[in-house]
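CO-FOLDING WORKSHEET

Operator: S.A.
Ligand of interest: flavin-adenine dinucleotide
Run index: 441
Mode: holo prediction, single chain
Checklist:
[x] sequence pasted
[x] SMILES validated
[ ] output reviewed
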Amino acid sequence: MSLRHEFITTKTNIEAWNRTCYKNKAKIFFPKNLNELLKFKRQLINSKSKYIVKTGNCSYDSKSIPADEKSFVISLKNLNRIIKIDRSKHTILVQSGIKISQLVKTLKENKYKIYCVPGGEKISLGGAISANAIGKDSNSSYGSFGDNVLSLKVLTENNKLINLSRSSKNFKNLIGGFGMNGLIIEAKLKIKKIKSENVNFNTYQFSNIQELTKILNNKNEYNYAQLDPYFRQKNFGVVFSANTSLNKNNYYKKINLNSNFLDKFFFYFASLFVNRFSWKIFYRFFFIIHKRQSKILDLHNFHYSSKYKHMIPLLYSKGIDDYEILIKDNLDIVLKKIIKFLKINKIYCIYIVVKKIFKSKSKYFYSFNDNGYAIALSLKNDKKSLLFYNFLKILIKNYQLSINLAKTDKILLNKKINKSSFMSLYKKKIIKNGKISRKRT
Ligand SMILES: Cc1cc2nc3c(=O)[nH]c(=O)nc-3n(C[C@H](O)[C@H](O)[C@H](O)COP(=O)(O)OP(=O)(O)OC[C@H]3O[C@@H](n4cnc5c(N)ncnc54)[C@H](O)[C@@H]3O)c2cc1C
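OUTPUT RECEIVED:
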């Protein structure tokens, strides 16, 4: 059924960040304000039309791709206002369409920061709440993004605006709800005063898993490690850490985070030369550059250092599969098994990042409820990735691991792995008939 004429939707081709799912000529609506959104939603209800939210540009697989031609996409890009920074209560009230990277920048200029900052510069606030994102600054008090959130303004399925405080019954359903339990319009977040806009940034090379575990347990404000996908002894991995600096000079460098046609062309062109040999050389240089560094960086530049990370999927025509494996303990055993499997099967990851993760304050709709470690790894979407996926299913069963659903959806198709209620809702609302819609094969 079509909508009345007054709402202009744009027909655009959209795809998941990792390029595994896409939809041509998706009908996108960009409400200019809340009033427009309410009217549009009313019409969707009246015409029994379905919709999905896609505001940011960092979601994986099928999460923000409409399942059929009739469904609409709503982008809250224009609902991006910072309503109030309350300096006495250390809170910020903000609309959900703002990019987290913009929030980090504005807060930094006001000498504040948020917790659990996810790494993509095009992640919206609504997307970070809905995926209950974890950051390289997560800690025992703020384990996942939901722990930052004090209250929410939400548009319900039947178009009612409601305010939810942390103690409200439905609050937890919105955290990690992947858009299935209502549309988040505004959020009040906890913020932390910072001493300066800068951080002391350090890198340090290590050569085995024992060192990795020790380093990840150092008490730094920001901490994560990157491993060599070839696991060469001389550059097994590098840890990146940062702590607030007392240096108050201005170190901010303006970096253009938007890629233009030429940038994209370069990546498509480079894709012709990406193979295990060129990748091996790239990583040799990468680890030489980052072997040991110590410098002061602006906080925003630390989080969002270049646009190129965003363009990695352009190197692979069928996209990439991104897995984040969440481990309660046994990091060394699980990592050894993964390394062995990758080596035997000659699978070369695009990247492997390991960080410490922390139990969330509450049991949200979707959250990781233990302290532990996360291994994030990215693979070219091909037959070997499927091989790894099957291996992962065995690992999950034997070592009680979980998979961060903010990344791959693929794993949801395995019933044994996830809570059945989450699974059935996700299938009903996002994945059609258990098959991911418009999969790029
Ligand atoms: C380069 C990169 C780095 C990343 N780093 C991290 C990281 O460090 N930690 C981490 O945990 N994750 C990370 N992610 C994953 C990312 O946090 C999630 O994919 C996130 O959900 C993306 O949000 P978005 O705004 O880009 O996407 P969107 O497509 O806008 O939204 C993603 C999901 O949230 C729902 N949603 C969005 N807005 C709303 C709203 N207002 N109300 C209700 N539902 C809504 C959508 O329906 C969809 O299901 C990263 C992703 C990329 C690409």
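REVIEW:
The mean pLDDT is 90.
The domain at 198-414 is CATH 3.40.462 (Vanillyl-alcohol Oxidase; Chain A, domain 3).
[x] output reviewed
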